[in-house]
Amino acid sequence: MTSAYPEVREKLLDLQHDLARENDVVMDGRDIGTVILPNAQVKIFLTASVRVRALRRMKELIEKGEEVTLENVEEEIRERDYRDSHRETAPLKQAEDAILVDTSSLSIEEVVSHVTGLIRPKMEKRG
Predict the structure, then answer these.
(1) pTM of the model
(2) Domain 2-126 of CATH type 3.40.50.300
């Protein structure tokens, strides 16, 4: 994980700040709303249960031809969540002003529709 190196994180932070300063952007990441763009107009914290995330990831891996078990994928997700939420630099956490969206029972189309519905009013206010 290259983003664990301070020099890499610093360079990525600079690039992301430059991109957001020059363009309207949608960014996805575990520290976008708290570290990268803390003043973003709209912050959405997407989540899903470990089981659902594991099922989704397992499907991706199987489609790539990998042999995995649900238990192993769940454990990897739990470990990553723990590691990311307990790291010293930019820990994974929901920004106080972020809108929580639990996607556990939603299709990708439903997530896109819901998120678009949250963003559109904010962007219309901007004019």
Answers:
(1) 0.83
(2) yes
